[in-house]
């Protein structure tokens, strides 16, 4: 990451958040959907912002996703995002859809902005109805501010089984002006490629059209949010929304802008950082696992192999047990669906080579075990098929994952 | 199963095993690959038998699979299957392949049968070499017998983290003579469609050509062994082998035989029973989960949906926690890749309808929780797309799964 920073003049902002870019406010309150924790949050742009979104590929699209799609379809602009936790409002039929529309209209009234400029997101238990009384009261309690505490309140309000809030921000210079992107996210279980139970919100003050923003987001998502997995389950609710309000004052960005690539990197680093924070906070996780696969025929092959390895329950439990069991890495790769020569695979746990061109290597189990006990574990796999490379992130599988999910509803 | 039995005159044999069909012997010994447990077993047919096999689809094929494929390719006959546990002899390069061939030749010598009539199978840790000294001594210790204890010794010798032996046998009448099929299997972790770390051995005294047997096995495997999952990981070693030695004396079976379907059912019931025993004994499992999906466009769709649901970590932990969280069932189905109308899905836990045509139903949580605490749990899903139906089997995900796999090698 250091290298990328220098190359592109991208700078990470200390204590950065969705409020690091110009022209945004945020807040969160306890609406009463949960016992005591904040459970309703909002992000507000001073002006209608260009926007882009990606949604779950699960055939079940929860009501809030349908409402958000409707909002964006009208003018491709957003000014507010209203989010609740505790209840996903998914598989709730006609009544659930009406509730989501009502959540939108209440937000519209409370903040004096058009309904179609409001996006709605929900996360929590599937199959239960929203308590609309509480939602509406909560919306009226919201008091978004531009100060750091507004971002912190929002970040807290959107969490479910997450143990920490997720935030980041980066800045760069485009057309000589400072352009910033910030993000907040939640997601801990049901995390897998294609927008698992994950909500990601990115704000930027970049000046960019919605169409260009959508193309940037789709590309970046495939390399970041879609490359994390906690448990292989994808959810009905998840989405990533980006708002770009143009307050930075750069010339309108699109693919022909000479500094387009800089913006892509800004969005990518912001998204990657959020994705990694989600993976690290996977339910019950004690470790972030990063798998890099290189030497594949294509980048897509490498991404697929990396995702399969990092998603393997056996790899995940081996890392939890700090066991350098590379056989599980190779078994996962062998079923990933990509084509490669099984006689030429090299695997490293951190710096330690454990399989060299498909021949077992004698290595210090102690060194590997010590390495696998670290907070962040990197597994590198090298093939000899081509120049394709890709990365995926996940976490270990622990007793606490079972505990959390054996009793999530109660 | 009761219905099928009556319809087809299939009969389950009490205490049935691989020795229930005529003309087989079996045995198992402690060769010293493990501390005290038996770790080397053999099945022997009195005469060279027709055979069929299916192998892992993992791109890594362990050495014993390559040797078995070689044996079968020569004459499409087998007379012996030699199996060791503790070491998978996978990813062991040239030396591993030589070892597997030596295991075959030692068996050939010890029992006076041609090398190409011997199949070799291994299961255990990947990436370690076989101790050939112990393997060869063990082969000479083997003393296969036709009595029940021979089957029991074999069944024990092939286990790894399994907690129980797996066996079954069924019989029927074809051409007026009694035809029997029996089976043994192992498999507890790395269990997923396409021959996970699973070994299945079926003996039958049916008179059938190897080609017809192969076509029967391939068909049956897709509905049985390939429809179980423990942890989504497929292995490098797994295979199912059937030997048919013709001792029953029926007319040669093939697709044109008027009682062909009876033989298919015999093979299917035997395979299904072994597959379910494997799923029930999944690492750390406390419950067998059966998922039936019907009303799909095709049987393949139904099988795929059933397999996705039963393989979902969140469904598995919900069953472990006896939590009637149908949202996880629907989320898994929604990502299964099949096409269906999400507005018309009905889900039942046992007899209790929890989702009716995609509308949540008020149900007794207590009834469902009590049901989910049973040894065997059935989840039924009904769509309205067509007549396709399919079943898959798995188990719950528990603390013990994490425990076993966080420390398997040590």
TrEMBL record, chains A, B:
GO MF annotations in UniProt: L-glutamate N-acetyltransferase activity, acting on acetyl-L-ornithine as donor
The chemistry this enzyme catalyses reads: N(2)-acetyl-L-ornithine + L-glutamate = N-acetyl-L-glutamate + L-ornithine; L-glutamate + acetyl-CoA = N-acetyl-L-glutamate + CoA + H(+)
HAMAP family assigned to the protein according to its UniProt record, in alphabetical order: ArgJ
Site Cleavage: give positions: 196-197
What name goes with this protein?
Answer: Arginine biosynthesis bifunctional protein ArgJ
Which family does the record assign?
Belongs to the ArgJ family.
Site feature Involved in the stabilization of negative charge on the oxyanion by the formation of the oxyanion hole, where: 123-124
InterPro entries, from UniProt?
Arg_biosynth_ArgJ (IPR002813), ArgJ-like_dom_sf (IPR016117), ArgJ_beta_C (IPR042195)
Which keywords are on file for this protein? Acyltransferase, Amino-acid biosynthesis, Arginine biosynthesis, Autocatalytic cleavage, Cytoplasm, Multifunctional enzyme, Transferase
Question: What species is given as this protein's source?
Answer: Peribacillus deserti
* Enzyme Commission number(s) of this protein: 2.3.1.35, 2.3.1.1
Q: Where does substrate bind?
A: 160, 186, 197, 283, 405, 410
Compartments, record wording: Cytoplasm
What pathway does the annotation place this protein in? Amino-acid biosynthesis; L-arginine biosynthesis; L-ornithine and N-acetyl-L-glutamate from L-glutamate and N(2)-acetyl-L-ornithine (cyclic): step 1/1; Amino-acid biosynthesis; L-arginine biosynthesis; N(2)-acetyl-L-ornithine from L-glutamate: step 1/4
Its assembly, as annotated, is: Heterotetramer of two alpha and two beta chains.
Catalytic residues (UniProt) = 197
Primary subcellular site in the record, as a coarse category: cytoplasm
Q: Which Gene3D superfamilies match?
A: arginine biosynthesis bifunctional protein suprefamily, ArgJ beta chain, C-terminal domain, L-amino peptidase D-ALA esterase/amidase
Give the matching PANTHER family. Answer: ARGININE BIOSYNTHESIS BIFUNCTIONAL PROTEIN ARGJ, ARGININE BIOSYNTHESIS BIFUNCTIONAL PROTEIN ARGJ, MITOCHONDRIAL
Q: What does this protein do?
A: Catalyzes two activities which are involved in the cyclic version of arginine biosynthesis: the synthesis of N-acetylglutamate from glutamate and acetyl-CoA as the acetyl donor, and of ornithine by transacetylation between N(2)-acetylornithine and glutamate.
């Amino acid at each position: 990451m250091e290298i990328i920073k220098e190359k592109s003049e991208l700078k990470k902002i200390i204590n950065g958040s969705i409020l690091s870019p110009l022209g945004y406010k945020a807040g969160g309150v306890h609406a009463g959907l949960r016992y005591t924790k904040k459970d309703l949050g909002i992000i507000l742009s001073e002006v209608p912002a260009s926007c882009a979104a990606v949604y779950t590929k699960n055939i079940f699209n929860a009501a809030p996703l349908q409402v958000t799609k409707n909002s964006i379809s009208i003018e491709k602009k957003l000014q507010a995002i209203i989010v609740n936790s505790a209840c996903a409002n998914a598989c709730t039929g006609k009544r659930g859809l009406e509730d989501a529309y009502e959540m939108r209209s209440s937000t519209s009234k409370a903040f004096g902005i058009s309904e179609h400029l409001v996006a709605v997101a929900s996360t929590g238990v599937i199959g239960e109805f929203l308590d609309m009384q509480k939602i509406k009261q909560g919306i009226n309690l919201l008091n978004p501010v531009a100060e750091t505490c507004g971002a912190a309140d929002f970040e807290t309000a959107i969490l479910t089984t997450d143990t920490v809030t997720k935030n980041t921000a980066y800045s760069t210079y485009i057309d000589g002006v400072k352009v910033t992107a910030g993000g907040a996210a939640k997601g801990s279980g049901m995390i897998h490629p294609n927008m698992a139970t994950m909500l990601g919100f990115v704000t930027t003050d970049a000046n960019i059209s919605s169409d260009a923003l959508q193309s940037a987001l789709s590309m970046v998502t495939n390399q970041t949010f879609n490359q994390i997995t906690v448990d292989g389950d994808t959810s009905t609710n998840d989405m990533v929304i980006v708002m770009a309000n143009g307050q930075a004052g750069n010339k309108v960005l699109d693919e022909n802008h000479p500094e387009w690539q800089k913006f892509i990197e800004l969005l990518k680093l912001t998204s990657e950082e959020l994705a990694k924070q989600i993976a690290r906070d996977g339910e019950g996780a004690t470790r972030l696992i990063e798998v890099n696969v290189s030497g594949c025929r294509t980048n897509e092959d490498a991404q697929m192999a990396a995702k399969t390895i990092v998603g393997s329950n056996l790899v995940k439990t081996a890392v939890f047990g700090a066991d350098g069991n590379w056989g599980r890495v190779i078994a996962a790769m062998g079923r990933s669906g990509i084509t490669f020569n099984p006689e030429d695979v090299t695997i490293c746990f951190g710096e330690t080579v454990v399989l060299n061109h498909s021949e077992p290597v004698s290595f210090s189990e102690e060194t590997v075990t010590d390495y696998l006990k670290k907070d962040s574990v990197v597994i590198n796999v090298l093939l000899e098929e081509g120049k394709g490379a890709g990365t995926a992130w996940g976490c270990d599988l622990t007793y606490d994952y079972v505990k959390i999910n054996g009793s999530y509803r109660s």
